[in-house]
Known about the structure:
protein biosynthesis, eleven-stranded mixed beta sheet, EC 6.3.5.7, binds glutamine, Amidase signature (AS) enzymes, globular, 14% strand
Amino acid sequence: TQGYISAISEAGALGAFVHETPDLAMDMARAADKRIAEGGAPDMCGIPLGIKDLFCTQGVASQAASRILDGFTPEYESTVTAKLWRSGAVMLGKLNMDEFAMGSSNETSTYGPAVNPYRRSGDTEALTPGGSSGGSASAVAASLCLAATGTDTGGSIRQPAAFTGITGLKPTYGRVSRWGIVAFASSLDQAGPMTRTVRDSAIMLQAMAGHDASDSTSADIPVPDFEAALSGDIRGKVIGVPREYRMDGIPKEIDALWQDGVRMLREAGAEIREISLPNTKYALPAYYVIAPAEASSNLARYDGVRFGRRAKSEPGDGILEMYEKTRAEGFGAEVQRRVMVGTYVLSAGFYDAYYNRARKVRALIKHDFDTVFDKGVDAILTPTTPSAAFALGSMADADPVQMYLNDVFTVTVNLAGLPAISVPAGQTGDGLPLGLQLIGRPWDEAGLLNTADVLE
Ligand code: GLN
């Protein structure tokens, strides 16, 4: 823990940690030492972690990287972090992210972006670690913590994991409690582990998962032993390769990586099958209707009264002026854009044309996956992202839709509520990490981790 604390204090330029808790970390580490000495301590005991700023941590600032939550220190602890602390993990601090987890580059953060520890060989340009869990990815890749929590609404664990050469797992919707995690789009959000290895993911998911009566969407089903599932044996497993993910304009390196993944799984004894997920092309538009719709509703609570920041009012201002000023100065541009899109698609005149249609598309996308799994496919292999990490600043000012296109391989999974993992599987010619994604059947994180372990 001491080693990580000093590594963090020297790595300020990465912008990964936004709030450090060294004293708390040392207290927790001493308590963990004691537990270990007594014997029978759980696997996570003494493991130093970074926590995405989206998780409420009791007595420690939790701002979701937003200005509107300036000064907010929760009175309560999220279920996930409470479970991690109970299993002896050590809290190093809070990690950078896109504001309210909206983004794919960590550039919408009120703290400024986190930076990818990787550079193109022979280049000095700073690259994005991805988003929204960019601080988590950067910190794990740069060894500023042994592992980190992330959250994934449309790819925010998997895309940054791919951009930084680490492993990121988005569990089945309902596997991990959302209680105490700042909500973005409640029907899509899931927390998961971001780690250096697949085995670490298995161990950390074990500590995070399980039913929680405080989250009505948390599933009351047994949690298997994820680490015990890592047998290395995938003989006879059926791996689907979806035709629709073979899109025009994908860099050759990504396609080659995908072929490598197919070869590795085949050599390990899996059967490779071409499959079709015909509604894939509608996933991005459906996601960018549903996610903002839910966000606009969730973000209504930030009104300057209940949490965080309140704008200064002028004499004569009423409560509406106070709301307006607070939101105008507290929410960044991307968050305001989402709130506007969300309220628009939910408004009486447009509800059927946009929101309801997107929900129908979502059902079709889920049906595509169900059909494939019913035919015996155990997991689906795709690239995690359509490109390697891009330069900071290169996309942020462009058309926001350009940034949204980055999520093309990841959002389908959230719409269908499925588990998926990104594993580091290769690199570009100029040395940037690339990830492969495996998508699994509902609740089959164990099978997914075992297959991913073969790719790692
Ligand atoms: N990039 C996507 C978005 O901006 C996904 C974010 C996420 O998974 N939290 O909505």
